Amino acid sequence: MLDTLLNWVLRAAVLLFAAGTLLALFRWLAQAFREKRERWPVRIALGMLLLAVVYGAGHARLLMQAEELNEGRLKYARFGDPRMAEINRAEVRGWILDCTGRDDRALARYGVREGEVERVYALGEGGANLVGGGEDAELRDYTVERLHASQLRRPLDFSEAGELHPAGTDLQLTLCAEPTLQAWSLLQQSGRPGAVVVQEVTTGALVAYAATGTAEQPPLGIKRYLIPGSVFKLALSAIWWENSMGDREMPCPAQIQVTPTRAIRNFESHAYPSLEVPREMLIVSCNTQAIAMFFEMRQRLGVQAVADALRSYGFLPYSDDRPTEGAEPFWNTGSAAWERRMTPPPNAVRILNRFDRFEWGQIAIGQGPVDVTPVGVSRFLQAIGNAGEMLPVTLERERLARVPPGRRIMSTETTIKLMEAMRGVVDEGTAVSVKPRLEGLQWGLGGKTGTADVRRGQRPDGWFAGLIFGPDDRPKYTVVVYLDQAGQGGRLPAAIAAGMVRFFAGWDPGPAGAEAQPEEAG
Amino acid sequence: MALRDLFRRRRAADPLPGGPEGVRIRVRPHNIPAAEREGRVFPGPLWWGLFLAAGFYVAAHLSIIWGVWPVHGISPGAGGTLVRDALALVGWLLVLLALRRLGYRGAWAVVVLPVLIFSLTRPAQFQAFTDPAYQATGTRRAEANHAKATRSRLSTIDRAYSEERKAAVYQGPPPPLPDPFARAVRREAEARGAIGRWLTYFPVFIAPLALLVGYLVSHEPSTLRWVRDHRLIPFIPVLGLFFVLTLFFTRAGKVGGTTPWELFLPLFVVTWAATLADDAYNLARPGEVMQKQRLLSLFLYGAAPVLPFLIIRELGLSVVLAGSLAAMLLVGTRRAWWGALMLAVWGVLVVIAFNVDPRSATRLELAYDPYKDLSTLAPAEQEAWAAKLHQMKLFDANVVTGGLLGQGPGRGHGETAPNAADDGYITLIAAQWGWVGAMTLVLLYTFFVVQLLAVAVRERSAFERTLVTGVAMLLGIPFWLATLGGVRVIPLTGVATAFAAHGGAKLLASAFAVGLVAGISHRRVEEERLEGALAPPPVEPENEGVRVR
């Protein structure tokens, strides 16, 4: 404390010196101009004053280019940077705490390893692409560790502010260590690259995030565009219900001829004589019905109404250039660096000005011109689970006290119908294979499977986008699973989602973790 | 008795001579005639500046001892450095006291401002030289840096963490605080030898004495007059020694790790001033300049001292000396065309230097295009450029870290940059005191040089005027080269800044030169006092017209 005070007193002394010297210089200048003496030394002196101004501007220029200079230094860091090395080894940043706030569950903390105190990351490779650490930790720049560095390095208190290596301030996240480790473990067991995102529906808090990827790759679940496949049918159904187009029986043929030369088939050419749309369309994921519904919506509602509804759900329609940013902040964050670096590209749907029947049909089944991110899909599901109110995603726990008011994107009635259909998907639909895994649990799972044909001749990518229901039968978490070339969404992805349900059913976050749950956050 | 009274030549309690016999009288200060008081009283603002600077010096040293030493550890000899700095402060204050006692009446700013500059910058130097890794090189430096970092982390945890958190970190007994610096750096210190170490310590506390010697040399006209009349006698041996040193004993621009030629520069300035003073009238006329005898004289006293610097490719110091001599020529002859001619020659030389000398060309690139795109370079070129950039990127980091107000005394990790205490001294200041601190130093130094020039302005004799201008330039030019080079406004030249940066010979030579200026300033005031005393009393203007009541 005394040291900090002394440092500020010394800074004040420096300021006093500056003021005194400036005053003396002005006095001298005034006197030099009044007196008629030798001129050349005075001119040289004036030149010196000009140089002082040049210095001030030159120094200020470096300060204004600080970011550029730091980037330049980073480029050359691999050739040796004793300053960076010393600071990295010597500094004591704040800890990154998980949702429970417990030291023993900290996501990033200090620990002794081979006689030296080192930064330890509890999630290991599982958290490397979001929290930090892992192999090549220094190369990762899409991490909490790096993007929240200013907070983690902010002195703990006033007395630390004057220290040579001030101990930094902790940062508590909404991310919970145990669910994230569980998600990472399930992802590893699947043997496929992919991502698992779990969000709390009432607050938008990110509870678990696990994704594969190397240090050079941006986080897969946040920054990478993927084709959602039939998961998109949830949005389509929401538009249908929102516009009161009625629940009615429709046939589900094996294929539908969208143009004279092109037809779109159901998965494995399944066909049903009649199904109630949209509910049963979602349960069995009937492509031909979805396409027929979408054509009907175009005819009855018009393209603009469909585009507006999609925009409202967070799927931005475009015709020429894909939008690069959404209309509203994606994250509820206090860090400009995080917002700038980690805001995902918006979910986007291309709707051409010139009507193309085949492309319109492709949109209906989430193929072709539909691009989403797993976290973007999770946010859409969060709105469904939160009675139609979409919230920004929160990762910093302290921001839970400042969640902005949600934006209503659909009616509560529509969300109820959607959730009913989603539960049907698990109970009797495309994800029924995981039903046995949920038996005996008070917790439940609903969702929509997606099987996206991305590359010809290869296995499709698999999706499961769902909601986890608590013992009170209310939606508690979203769960979005994406697996690269994993085949049907109802298999491995749905199994991972079921694994997460089993985990949450037995998970005790402890008193601090319970505090972080919806009651406080609302 | 107030501390300030120590600096008064005669305390108020001292009886003054005069008055009836046997009666002791006192003259109150406000009754002492202005002519008697002039220059004797230490000016108030300077007194406060000195008081503040001394306080700053002591407090900043203490802050480093309390806040930096326990965290980073210290180098062997850190205690000696502390004693040296304490002695240096005492030495500077004693010199001011001695000048007061010697009846100094010249410009006080000329002798006080170097002390202020020294006091503001020395703590940063102190931190660098007591840092356990700063003076180590190569693998030893890396070793010391590693241990320093480990120690820092452990000491921070020990200071800031609660017992519970410490237990969570250590999971048992805490690891011992490493202290391998002595081993890492002692070998380095031993390699430098006793003379090398002595040469580092000695000039810092001997510098105040050098100032006093300079003053004693010049406060009476006889010594300088002798040098002026017999300038070849000291000039030729010194120039010869200079050539011998540069031709046969110089390695990487230094002789045994020192730059002894800094000590020669005041003599070169004095002899050049004498040459100009003797021939100023003819040098001011272009037709007369071209005479063979005159050209020989210009070459011998004006160009020959610069040549050894060019031989050892010490571009910075050649600019310092040539610039000083050129400014003296300008002031001595009062001819602007000299200035234009010198600017043109200087411009051509700079262009040649940056095109012919690869070292200078590299420095130019480092100043204006340091962070080259690595993808445009071959792997070998990448390595080579990274090695050249190493120092500059760390200087940049110092400036950026300091921000507006800096990190505080000894803070900011400025010492991680190689040569931060000399070439990059301004970046070390910037890391610790920010833009405000660096600007304060720049303004203070500018004011110091301006005050030296103000002495030149006041001087009537051509010899003294050009000599003082030369000294001002000898201090001002390296300051600007180093300061503007540190923030990449111009290429870095590697010259040392007197009083503000590390550099023993420079400090000694500069202190001596400042002493010379102080003596000349004192003489001018004395002469003006004498003239004032001998001048007829001012005539009261007679009232004219009729006063009507």
Folded structure, characterized:
- The complex is a heterodimer of chains A (522) and B (549).
- Chain A has 22 helices and 20 strands.
- Chain A is an alpha+beta fold and 522 residues long.
- In chain A, strands 6-5-20-19-18 form a five-stranded antiparallel β-sheet, sandwiched between helices. In chain A, strands 11-13-14 form a three-stranded mixed β-sheet. A two-stranded parallel ribbon of chain A has the order 1-4.
- Chain B has 549 residues and is mainly alpha-helical.
- In chain B, helix 2 runs parallel beside helix 5 and helix 11 (265-283) packs parallel to helix 15.
- At the A-B interface, helix 1, helix 2, helix 3, helix 4 and strand 2 of A face helix 2, helix 6, helix 7, helix 15 and helix 18 of B.
As residue ranges, the low-confidence spans of chain B are: none
Q: What's the count of strands of chain A?
A: 20
Global Rg of chain B:
27 Å
| Average pLDDT for all residues of chain A | 90
In short:
The complex is a heterodimer of chains A (522) and B (549). Chain A has 522 residues and is α+β, with helices and mostly antiparallel strands. In chain A, 43% of the residues lie in helices and 17% in strands.
List the topology elements.
The complex is a heterodimer of chains A (522) and B (549).
Chain A (H helix, E strand, L loop, with lengths): L1 H33 L5 H25 L1 H10 L6 H9 L5 E2 L10 E6 L2 E6 L3 H4 L15 H4 L1 H5 L4 H4 L9 E2 L4 H14 L3 E7 L5 E6 L8 H4 L9 H10 L5 E5 L2 E3 L5 E3 L6 E6 L1 H6 L2 H15 L1 H10 L2 E4 L12 E2 L3 H7 L4 E4 L6 H8 L5 E2 L2 H12 L3 E2 L2 E2 L12 E2 L3 H17 L6 H4 L5 E9 L8 E9 L5 E9 L8 H15 L3 H6 L2 H4 L1
Parallel strand pairs in A: 1-4, 11-13, 12-16
Antiparallel strand pairs in A: 2-3, 5-6, 5-20, 7-10, 8-9, 13-14, 15-17, 18-19, 19-20
Helix pairs in contact in A: 9-20, 11-13, 11-18, 13-14, 13-16
Chain B lengths: L33 H4 L6 H24 L1 H4 L5 H24 L6 H23 L7 H23 L2 H8 L10 H38 L2 H9 L2 H17 L16 H19 L2 H4 L2 H12 L3 H5 L3 H19 L2 H21 L1 H11 L10 H24 L22 H34 L3 H25 L17 H31 L15
Helix pairs in contact in B: 2-5, 4-5, 4-8, 5-19, 5-21, 6-8, 8-21, 9-11, 11-13, 11-15, 11-20, 15-16, 15-20, 16-17, 18-19, 19-20, 20-21
